[in-house]
Amino acid sequence: MAAALVCAALGLVSCGADPDTSVQSADSADTPACKLLRPVSVEFGLGQPSVSEMSGDGCTAHSHEFGTLTVTMRDRPLEAAATGQGKRSTMKFGDHDAVMLMGSLNGVCKIFLDTGEKNSLELRLGRTTAMTPQVCTSLKKATAKVADDLPAAAPASASG
Predict the structure, then answer these.
(1) What integer is the mean pLDDT of 102-118?
(2) Over 90: is that where the pLDDT of 55 sits?
(3) 60-73 burial string, b = 16+ CB within 10 Å, else e?
(4) Beta bridge mates, 83
(5) Which of 6, 110, 122, 160 is at a distance of 20 to 30 A from 143, taking alpha carbons?
(6) Cα gap 107→136, rounded to integer Å
(7) What is the tally of helices (H) and strands (E) in the chain?
(8) How deeply is 37 buried, as exposed, middle or buried, from its count of CB atoms within 10 A (0-12, 13-18, 19+)?
(9) CA 111/CA 98 separation, integer angstroms
């Protein structure tokens, strides 16, 4: 459900089965999470995004320098999705509320981003070559890029 709502809000045409192209649902070019990750992947020099092995609702890209970045669609509002251990911080990316969890595991950081309509995105960055605060700084930059590509979250907005 979250994937469809974010997909529709982004105006993406290939979220569902398209009989003209016969694209498999596992094709990274066809998943909403990979469509959100692709511009980030290009900007930060990550490899080609692919469907996450942990969740079909997720997409992962990797480079040795940046680490492994995963974007996962969540069918839950921000507060319900933003669970886990670590130092919790609230923040905003544009008009999107977010919660960052700076994990106790070295080199792992998560940011949960509100996408409206009671849905959210989870962005997770893992990098074994950096301390957690450095990883979270990198993840904030990637999250800002993803948030820029999302439709406005403000429900009162009359313009599109």
Answers:
(1) 88
(2) no
(3) bbbeeebbbbbbbb
(4) none
(5) 160
(6) 8
(7) 4, 7
(8) buried
(9) 7
CA 29, 32, 36, 41 dihedral sign is negative
**Amino acid occupying residue 20:** D
Rounded Cα distance, 60 and 80, in Å: 23
- State whether residue 5 is helix, strand or coil: helix
Query: Which three-class secondary structure state does DSSP give residue 87?
Result: strand
Q: How far apart are CA 47 and CA 143, in angstroms?
A: 17
pTM: 0.76
Domains in the chain with CATH codes: 32-149 (3.40.1000)
Tokens for 3, please give them. Answer: 């994937």
Q: What are phi and psi for residue 52, nearest 5 degrees?
A: -65, 140
